[in-house]
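Researcher: We plan to redesign the surface later, but first we want a full-length starting point. Tokens attached.
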């Protein structure tokens, strides 16, 4: 068991409603530094809301969320810095359409972190190299494939030097032949020690990269286990039912 101060993201008794819908129910979750968590569960179970709450894209009704020991800020500069600490990659490729690939990656460091332009460009090029799209730096997002765009989105998040990366179904919108190029980048990140919370149904990725699988249904964490145990011997009825449908 790691020491308590290894905890990077901690959720305690987190609740969230949308009107009458109780989408997060007493969520307790602790993610340690360097840990990779895969969140899995049926559509509508609250996985995206969970990610969005950690990045403060959604407010919560009760409970606490801390990142690196600090409660989530409400607004202003502190919130911008939280967003830098908590990188997020969505299902849709959220690149700025009217900016080049390079400018997409340098914008955050220049605007939020005050990184000098030349340094931001050099660091961005290194990151684009790392995700295998350095040769696309001067193009615009629409000129790239979905897999390339998603790798740029990962580079853009990494440019902010996040403490934790959230991925919300990052390969769901991709053509099948592009899924692995994105999962490979994510697997490398995991093996390099990045703390990651990944919503995905890609079990190969979970088996390769995850320390723990968290199964959600109806806004609750129903079960947590290491990937091998979860996929071969789930204990909850909901998890068994879900796995029988996707396996
Ligand atoms: P998942 O990502 O597991 O599919 P979500 O977190 O997106 O689940 O959604 C959980 C539930 O909350 C769903 O029933 C969804 O329709 C509802 N929901 C999500 N966002 C909103 C919103 N902004 N307003 C109202 N209901 C929402
Ligand atoms: Mg979702």
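Model: Full-length starting sequence:
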């Amino acid at each position: 068991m790691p020491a308590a101060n290894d905890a990077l993201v901690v959720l305690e008794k987190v609740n969230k409603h949308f009107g009458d819908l109780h989408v997060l129910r007493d969520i307790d979750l602790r993610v340690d530094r360097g840990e990779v968590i895969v969140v899995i569960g049926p559509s509508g179970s609250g996985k995206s809301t969970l990610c969005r709450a950690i990045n403060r894209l959604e407010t919560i009704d009760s409970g606490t969320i801390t990142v690196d020991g600090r409660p989530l800020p409400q607004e202003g500069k502190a919130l911008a810095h939280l967003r830098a600490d908590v990188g997020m990659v969505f299902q849709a490729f959220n690149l700025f359409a009217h900016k080049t690939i390079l400018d997409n990656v340098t914008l955050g460091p220049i605007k939020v972190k005050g990184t000098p332009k030349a340094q931001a460009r050099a660091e961005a090029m290194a990151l684009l190299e790392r995700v295998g799209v350095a040769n696309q730096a001067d193009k615009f997002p629409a000129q790239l494939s979905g897999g390339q765009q998603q790798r740029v989105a990962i580079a853009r998040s990494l440019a902010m030097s996040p403490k934790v990366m959230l991925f919300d179904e990052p390969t769901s919108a991709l053509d099948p032949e592009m899924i692995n190029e994105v999962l490979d980048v994510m697997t490398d990140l995991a093996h390099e020690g990045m703390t990651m919370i990944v919503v995905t149904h890609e079990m190969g990725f979970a088996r390769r990269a995850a320390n723990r699988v968290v199964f959600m249904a109806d806004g609750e964490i129903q079960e947590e286990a290491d990937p091998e145990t979860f996929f071969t011997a789930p204990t909850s009825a909901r998890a068994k039912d879900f796995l029988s449908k996707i396996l």
